[in-house]
Structure formats: structure tokens, C-alpha cells
Amino acid sequence: MKKIECDSFLQFKFVSNPGFSPNGKYVAFVVQRADKATNGYKGDLHLLETETGKVRQLTSGGDAKSYCWTDDNKVLFPAVRCPKVKEKLAKGQNLTSFYEIDPEGGEALRAFDVPVRTGGLTNIGGNKFMLISAYDNNYPVLDDLSDEEKAKKLEAYVKPAYDVFEELPFWGNGIGITSGKRNRLYTYDRESGKLTAVTGEWFSVDSASYGFGKIVYKGGEWHGLRYHFAGVYVYDLKTRRSTCVLKPDKMKTGPVALWDENTLVLTATDGKIINADGKPFGSEQYCDFYTADIKSKKLTKLADYEASVGASSVGSDSRYGGGKGFKVEGDKVYFVTTVVDSGYLRTVDRQGNIADVYAKSGSVDNFDVKDGKVVFAGMYGNKLDELYQLCADAVCEEACQVTHFNDEFVETHSIVTPEFHSFVASDGFEIHGWALKPVGYEPGKKYPAILHIHGGPRTVFGEVYHNEMQLWANAGYFVFFCNPRGSDGRGNEFGYITGKYGTVDYDNIMEFADEMLKKYPDADADNFGVTGGSYGGFMTNWIIGHTDRFKAAASQRSIANWTAFEHTTDIGYFFTPGQMGTNTRTDAEKLWWHSPLKYADKAKTPTLFIHSNQDYRCWMVEGLSMFTALKMHGVESRLCLFKGDNHELSRGGQPRNRIRRMEEILGWMDSHLK
User: Fold this and answer.
1) What is the pLDDT of residue 653?
2) Is-contact 654 210, C-beta < 8 A?
3) Please, which pLDDT band fits residue 156 given cuts at 50, 70 and 90?
4) Please, which residues bridge with residue 130 across strands?
């Protein structure tokens, strides 16, 4: 068997975004791959023939990463193939070319250009589409000008040699400087070529979906300070008028869709349920299911729910691409949800009954459904994402795997099966965790170990393929990972650690480490490393200031100082009070008490810091602060600041940076634990 190496992910085929054609004859989906030569990702469209189960490739240019179906069962996708379009884009002109291809045969032909930049379209019937595009209020307005007039105005426009911050947030992870910029909702008429703005220049759209001649969208107009929770709006395509069903900051909301022409179905919470501490759960309370009457704007609770909805939070560094996580089909709403340690597919009906559609250890990542037939991209049995199919109107114990893009990799590489463990922690909660044995494990021989802590904290680890952990096992390490308090999938009380960071979660993780060392006596407690990213980076920083049990640490995209985090990151101004239960002005001492930087003078563990210079979610000041503090106190440390990447470095960063990151972490652990 081949060993998993730092660049093995270059062999992965990332399967995502299945979607039925209007006639149900086909399912289109996207397959992407990391490309080291271009230091990016290439993608192509594929088709599943639903009657025969045959899978075939539809495009081959490596530039088809999103798509939509037309009414006549053809596929539209954005691509840059025309030299004149490339020239216009290079000059700063805004446009997106769409190509059309017939699944019955033929080449992709350029269909039309939309005069804004967008990642894709959604069919709203009758050769009309909706799209979301970034709108810059600092930029010349060019919408109604001819190509020649646009070119002249762009040539005359001189971009300032400095950035102006007048809003909060002032930047966004994966976006950059955001002042004056909004995501606008548009409709586009293919026949007339007319682009119509649905929302205003200062309205920002977070998401949108179509049904029953209407568009439901989330967002809000804002100036200076962005809303915390998006409002919910419905745009009627006939009257061309929007109705606000729920104002911004009224309630925290999750996915929303049109159930019929008069009714919305959505997840929402007011955060008022009282927890075991006698306090409201607040923004950390899970959303319940509601219906909303569009005319009266009245919300009616449909069902209580205590899990995330709309996406799987089962952590993996081996996914790439998106897709549906919430969809109305008849009298049911299908949704992806994290339950305990897995991503399930469930439904809720108009009576509020919640039922499993597919509930197996692993993860449903994204799906589509038509006439009761379900296809989904999922990760099961140590495999990477593949496409699976379920029969209509039945609960299937086993889904049929219909693609096999990654079978060869799985069959030819040394992949270790996670071994599940659970124990009751000192706080009375059952903690779930797993162990990977080192490849070539020989009983009685001592091996170094790595403890891995997930991000979030409202995510989970589970029994899905995780490349970096498999890499460490292949390099001769025991690997331990668990879901402490604060993790997803176990209800409000388990997931609530507001104001408790570094206390109950730290105890859970340390007790889990003790349990693993007892159950695996061949794991060398004297050569034990710890790592994690985001929340896991925070916890790694916390650990090195509270115990000397680890011989090496790798802190990634971390939090070090809550007072700095609150004021420098794209989410800090609301995430800090949401997670800490206070802010700098109200109780700076509490924020400092929960800040790993406070305890950096106690650290002795050699620590590697991994950060990216465009990570605005956990800005690089966090890693720099901890690195500086450790250096000042004589602790061996190293900081690697990756250029051109953001908070998603480990999962969707530039391929060369992803390889180097894994080399740095593995090299650090090897040099200190072996």
C-alpha cells in the first residue's frame, strides 16, 4: 500500500453540487481537483443518467465549477474562454460569460454575457434567471453605459492608493476590504439582455432561492454598522415588489425557502430559552422550525429542534465545493443536519413531523431531490466525497454509490479506520472520540501521538476521511480526536459554552487524552503533541499555557486575545460577546481571563504557529501575539505566515501553500516527538 504524503490530496476528485434536470432525466454535478501547476483548482461538469445509472463527463476545459439547468434541460455555466472577454476583464470591466451545453450531445457554445461579475445563475423560469453580484458603492456606476463609454470611464478612474474604513466590518474573510461594498440581487432576462436590480445599492444579500414565482432572500440595508442577524424578504416577480417578512436583528435565522406562494418555511430562534446556568442561551441557541405567512408576516412554530440545519458540520479537510443543504419538495422540507457525530438527511412536514431520510455514520454534504428521488454527495467508510442515490419514498439503510472517482486512491493507500470511544467526563457529559493507530502498528512498540482539536467550536469530528490525520498516522503517529462540550449535534445544553472557553471544554479534552493513553498504552505520553485550527487553535494556545504535558504544539489560525479579536476581525464585534457573554467595555477582565495570551508566560511547549496574511476571521495579530510572547519568555517557537490565503488554508487554500503547511506541521512534530 502507498503511504499518504503531504501532496496526496492532489489526487483527490472533489465531488459536489448534484442537481436534477427539469425533466428528471439527468443529474448534473461538479468534480474539482487541486492543480499544483496553476496553484489553483480545476473543475468540470459531469452527468448521471437517472434511468441507467451511467455517469459521464460533460465538460473538459477545467473551468466549469458551477451551473444551472434551463427550462429546456440544457446546462448553463460561467467560463472565461473568449479572448475579448479576457481583455475586458483585465481592464476592470464587469461581465460574466455563460456557456450552454446540451446533455444529449454537442459542444459548449457561448450563450450570453451578463454585465456584472457573478459565480452563477438560478433559473426562475421563462428564460429568466436570478443572480447575486458584488456591488461597489466606491466604484463608477457603469450599468447603463455602452461598452465604449464603460471603457472610457474606467480608463479615467484612478483607484486610490489607500483603503478607507468607514464601516464595521471593514473586511471579510475570503473577500478583503468591504467598506462600501454590498452583494446585490438581480434578475436577468436572457431574451432582452436586461439586468434588473432587485435590491438597492446599500442592501446586502446573504442568500436567495426561488419558488412559486417569487424570490425569498436574506439580508438587510445597512450603513456604518452591519446587522447581526439578516432579515427575510420576498420579491414577487409579477409585481416587482419586495415584502419584508422579518426585519434584520429581530431573530437569528437559518435557511429559508418558499413552501407555497403564500408561506415560508424557515429556521429561527429568539434565544430566550433558559439554560442550566439560569441564563438565556442567546445567539448560541439552536434554531427551531417555523412557518411564516407572507401577507400577515406572522411566524408560527412548526417544530422544536436542537441541531444545526442546512449543512453538515462534520469536519474534514478533504471537501471542495458546495451545493444544496435545504430544499422544499412537495409537502416536505429536506435538510442536511448534524446529529451527534454525523451529517444526516432529514425531512420536516407541514405537521412538524421530523423524519430521517438517510441516517448513517458519515456525512451527507449536499443533495438534490425530485419526485421523491434523492441524490447526494457524501463521505462514508473512509472514502472521499462521492455521489449516492436513494430510491423514491423510502428510508434506505444503504445508499447506492453511483460515482467512483476516488476508489483507486482509497484502495491503493494506507487509510486507517477510526476506532470509536466514549466516556463520561467529570462534568457528567458523555464525550465521544476516536483513535487512529499508526500505519504498520506493532503491539508493544512505543509510538508518538498527536491530539487534534476541531474548529468551531460548533462543529464535530466524525468517522469521515480526514487527510491530515491520515497523514500523521501514515507517518507513524497515534492520532486522537474528540468532540468536547461546545461541539455540534448534541443539543443546546451540550453545545453551550458561552463564557466558559478554556474551562469545561479544556477539562473534557484533557480527560479524553488521559483515557486514550490508558486504552492505548503504546502511545508514548512523553512524546505527545497537540494541534488544532480556529477554535482548535485557541484551545492549543490555551493548553500550552496551562499544562506542560505536550512536547510539541502546532497552533493554527488561532485566537490569542479576545479584546484584540473583538476589534480586528470580520466577526469579532458580535462573535466575542456571543461566545464570551460580554465585551471589552463591559468586562475586559473576563475577556482577558479567557485569553491564552494572559498565560503565555507559563508556556514551555515548543510551538509552531500557522497563519495566513488574508485571514480576517482570526487575523494574523492573534498568531503574532502568541509567537511574540513565547519568544519573550524563551520558548522555542516558529511562525509561518502564508501569503495570499485566508482562514480556509487547510481546506481550500492554494495547493502549494496547502502542501507546505502540512510539511511544516509534520516536520515540527517529527523534530520534537521522534
Assistant:
1) 98
2) no
3) low
4) 122, 187
* pLDDT tens-digit series, residues 464-500: 999 999 999 999 999 999 999 999 999 999 999 999 9
Does the pLDDT at position 660 exceed 70? yes
Task: Decide if 431 contacts 484 (C-beta within 8 A).
Answer: yes
pLDDT of 168 > 90? The answer is yes
User: Using CA atoms, how far apart are residues 655 and 341, in angstroms rounded to an integer?
Assistant: 29
Is the preceding omega at residue 457 within 30 degrees of 0, hence cis? yes
- 185-204 burial code (b ≥16 CB/10 A, e <16): bbbbebeeeebeebbeeebb
If we measure between CA atoms, which residue out of 516, 526, 519, 532 comes closest to residue 549? 526
| Cβ atoms of 513 and 434 closer than 8 Å | no
Under a CB-based contact definition with an 8 Å cutoff, are residues 338 and 460 in contact? yes
pLDDT tens, residue by residue, 204-252: 999 999 999 999 999 999 999 999 999 999 999 999 999 999 999 999 9
Beta bridge partners of 421: 433
Q: Is the pLDDT of residue 93 over 90?
A: no
> What percent of the chain is helix, strand and coil (3-state, nearest 5)?
20, 35, 45
Residues 286, 495 contacting (CB under 8 angstroms): yes
E strands along 166-325, which residues?
A: 171-172, 176-177, 181-189, 195-197, 203-211, 214-221, 231-236, 241-246, 252-260, 263-269, 288-293, 299-303
Residue 427: per-residue pLDDT:
97
Distance CA 273, CA 280 (A): 5
Residue with cell 493554527: 556
Max Cα–Cα distance, the chain, nearest Å: 77
State the distance between the two ends of the chain, measured CA to CA, in whole angstroms: 23
Q: Do 114 and 187 form a contact (C-beta atoms < 8 A)?
A: no
Instruction: Name the β-bridge partners of 268.
Output: 253, 288
Strand intervals (E) in 316-381: 326-329, 332-339, 342-349, 354-358, 363-370, 373-379
With cut-offs at 50, 70 and 90, classify the pLDDT of residue 14: very high
pLDDT at 143: 58
Residue 486: closest CA among 466, 511, 461, 463:
461
Task: Report in angstroms the alpha-carbon separations of 550 from 53, 455, 468, 527, 673.
Answer: 51, 20, 19, 7, 10
**DSSP codes joined into one string, 419-449:** EEEEEE-TTS-EEEEEEEPPTT--TT--EEE
Q: Is the per-residue pLDDT at 415 higher than 90?
A: yes
Residue at 165: amino acid letter? F
Task: Determine the Cα–Cα distance for residues 222 and 229; give it in Å rounded to an integer.
Answer: 12
Q: CA-CA distance, 229 to 198, in Å (whole number)?
A: 20
Q: CA–CA separation, 199 vs 194, rounded Å?
A: 16
Cα–Cα distance, 197 to 640 (Å, whole number) = 43
Q: Inter-axis angle of helices 584-593 and 572-580, to 10 degrees?
A: 70
- Cell numbers for 455, please give them: 474548529
Q: Are 538 and 558 in contact (CB under 8 A)?
A: yes
d(CA 290, CA 287): 9
242 contacts 233 by C-beta, under 8 angstroms = yes
Q: Identify the pLDDT of residue 398.
A: 86
| DSSP state letter for 293 | E
Element (H, E) at 539: helix 535-544
**pLDDT above 60: residue 503:** yes
Residues in the chain: 674
Question: Of 579, 601, 564, which Cα lies nearest the Cα of 501?
Answer: 579
